[in-house]
Amino acid sequence: MSKGLPETRTDAAMSELVPEPRPKPAVPMKPVSINSNLLGYIGIDTIIEQMRKKTMKTGFDFNIMVVGQSGLGKSTLVNTLFKSQVSRKASSWNREEKIPKTVEIKAIGHVIEEGGVKMKLTVIDTPGFGDQINNENCWEPIEKYINEQYEKFLKEEVNIARKKRIPDTRVHCCLYFISPTGHSLRPLDLEFMKHLSKVVNIIPVIAKADTMTLEEKSEFKQRVRKELEVNGIEFYPQKEFDEDLEDKTENDKIRQESMPFAVVGSDKEYQVNGKRVLGRKTPWGIIEVENLNHCEFALLRDFVIRTHLQDLKEVTHNIHYETYRAKRLNDNGGLPPVSVDTEESHDSNP
Amino acid sequence: TASRAMDKEYVGFAALPNQLHRKSVKKGFDFTLMVAGESGLGKSTLINSLFLTNLYEDRQLPEASARLTQTLTIERRGVEIEEGGIKVKLTLVDTPGFGDSLDCSDCWLPVVHFIEEQFEQYLRDESGLNRKNIQDSRVHCCLYFISPFGRGLRPLDVAFLRAVHQKVNIIPVIGKADALMPNETQALKQKIRDQLKEEEINIYQFPDCDSDEDEDFKRQDAEMKESIPFAVVGSCEVVRAGGIRPVRGRRYSWGTVEVENPHHCDFLNLRRMLVQTHLQDLKEVTHDLLYEGYRARCLQSLARPGARDRASRSKLSRQSATEIPLPMLPLAETEKLIREKDEELRRMQEMLEKMQAQMQQSQAQGEQSDAL
Question: Which GO terms describe its biological process (chain B) (predicted)?
Fold first, then answer.
């Protein structure tokens, strides 16, 4: 779904912006069916560059939620992912942090800049999840929060005088932290992912993976993948949303071999072979977070940030949000919710 | 040790410890160890490492969906271990399913009932007529596994410990301790100790060593006590660490954890304190403190207004205890017991008659046989 492509400019205008007659594209493109060389250069391949410039000006939103029992290193991992203190660690041993009695939702926003690109990152933490004696339905506050963000967006969208850029607080990605028991998924993991995989992109990760040997890791992953499959849970990237063969091949490999990523997080640096690396220092060795022989943090990082960031947003918008929207409008008799102020609006004339 | 007195003043009971030792070596040694904690904390591996067995070979781990509604079960496994002429009959009690369900409320009750049932059985046996071969199935120690991934005791840990701490010796351990860096281990241990104090949970107190032990031993003993809860790692795989001699450990890409290396984990401490030095004390505390507490509570509850006159607290003797049906037993059980005791009585009477006849025969020799 593409919105608002700028119109094709004339050659004259193009030559003002671009010094060379035939600029090289910044990103390798899919092959075009028409050989534009024969007819003369049009210049639509520069759309990439234009979009890049626009994005750099406006920046973009990314909202990532972390879910899992306390102590699984959620905050540390997010901080490691974005190389900054974007998530407040509740694990400072000195503080008297009591486990909350119900699941809380805490959203903290930061602006991160890299290479001129501004990202407004929001990390949504869910303390209290899975920590009680009775954890039945503990995912409900999370589901509610996610739907509330869809509702917010919907209300903005159907507004007559709507904002130019609707603030996007929808959860683009939910990292679910699996405890490295080495046995199988816990019943709570299954229940959460069953309920939530239909409303949000779930990326399961195996937390604190430095307690598993290579064999244990591989066996555990296989068992987890099988359990997810048997229970009909589709984690991101979902098979049904692969756009083409290229996507499918790439994603199949990730789905069937790499995921769930077995990760280790750290905010401390140590000296290894003359380099300073992020890691964990134990009496029997130093675990390097970004060393692929040690754990799959780098794979997770590349996946979420370097290759699938935009896709995560698009699937959220085009699939999850659309599903929510359709259901809401359907419940409303095909009409948009009337007032911005009321929660539920029911028309007298359906 | 006191210096020996002169020969003519030497009575000889300094040899008593040796006699006891020989008797127990002959008799063998029973010990029941319970292992509890949520699944996936390395409990089975640790037990196998501690006792160098493979007790869990036949174990089937259920999948997550099956565990959703699984209730806690109690499993017993027995193993006989012989070392240096000493036979130990070790019974391991497992609690699979603990902490699995979505709703774990009251999931510790089956464990509490199990522990109390063993006390009850012992109480019955002790009050019975044939007390020569009482089987002691009481739980002498509970190794409780705490997750290294949490931030101390979780609500479920606290609830479980509070439910059992006055009924069984608790030794808390941190499982899969190779998940932690040294400073994290220290912080977690301190947090757990603080929480135990705050929640007023009694754990097994390793007794102080004798004042006449040497300084080294005392220091070692103090260090061991300070390392509670023990941060343990288990393994039954033998690996070559640094290519020297093979050790039991876990091999990672960044190094190898050695189970028996005191710089890596507290496995040796646990083994030393649990198996090598305090097995007997654990049994004694179970008997003298925990069981007696149970017994007193049980018998006191009979002394409510309306109960029989004979059941007064101070006057309760061992004999009269047998005539009062124990409150926990269902009626059918009581009747069965009465029948069994009747049978025993009859057999005893027969034997007595036989013995009386024998006595009359051998009266001239002046021998006496022990009355049963």
Answer: cell division; meiotic metaphase chromosome alignment; spindle assembly involved in female meiosis
| Residues B84-96 pLDDT 10s | 777 888 999 999 9
Q: What is the 3-state secondary structure (H, E, C) of chain B?
A: CCCCCCHHHCCCHHHHHHHHHHHHHHHCEEEEEEEECCCCCCHHHHHHHHHCCCCCCCCCCCCHHHHCCCCCCCEEEEEEEEECCEEEEEEEEECCCCCCCCECCCCCHHHHHHHHHHHHHHHHHHHCCCCCCCCCCCCCEEEEEECCCCCCCCHHHHHHHHHHCCCCCEEEEECCHHHCCHHHHHHHHHHHHHHHHHCCCCCCCCCCCCCCCCHHHHHHHHHHHHCCCEECCCCCCEEECCCCCEEEEEEECCEEEECCCCCCCCHHHHHHHHHHHCHHHHHHHHHHHHHHHHHHHHHHHHHCCCCCCCCCCCCCCHHHHHHCCCCCCCHHHHHHHHHHHHHHHHHHHHHHHHHHHHHHHCHHHCCCCCCC
ipTM: 0.81
Chain B: give the shortest CA distance to residue A191, in Å.
9
Nearest to B64 among A91, A184, A285 (CB): A184
Judged by CB atoms closer than 8 Å, whether chains meet at A284 and B256 is answered as yes
Chain A contact set for B61 (CB, 8 A):
183-184
Q: Do B65 and A99 touch (CB under 8 A)?
A: no
Task: State the virtual CA torsion across B17, B19, B24, B27 in degrees, nearest 10.
Answer: -170
Is A296 part of a structural domain of the chain?
yes
Quick check: is A154 in a domain? yes
Count structural domains, chain A. 1
Q: In terms of residue numbers, what domain contains A319? A: 57-265+292-332
Q: Is B337 part of the contact surface with chain A (CB cutoff 8 Å)?
A: no
User: Are A131 and B155 an interchain contact pair (Cβ–Cβ within 8 Å)?
Assistant: yes
Q: Which of B64, B252, B254 sits opposite A185 (nearest CB)?
A: B64
Contact B104 A189 (CB under 8 A): no
Interval B107-125: pLDDT, tens: 999 999 999 999 999 998 8
Distances A76 to A103, A247, A276 between C-alpha atoms, Å: 20, 31, 18
Q: What is the pLDDT of residues B297-355, one digit of tens each?
A: 888 887 765 444 444 444 444 444 444 444 554 555 666 777 777 787 888 888 888 88
> Where residue A141 sits, what CATH number does that domain have?
3.40.50.300
| Chain B partners within 8 Å of A183 (Cβ) | 39-40, 61
Rg over alpha carbons for chain A, rounded to the nearest Å, is: 23
**Is the minimum CB–CB distance between B43 and chain A shorter than 8 Å?**
no
Q: Is the CB of B100 less than 8 angstroms away from the CB of A190?
A: no
Across the interface, of B61, B149, B150, the residue whose CB is closest to A183 is B61
Assess if residue A238 is contained within a domain: yes
Question: Is residue A120 one of the residues assigned to a domain?
Answer: yes
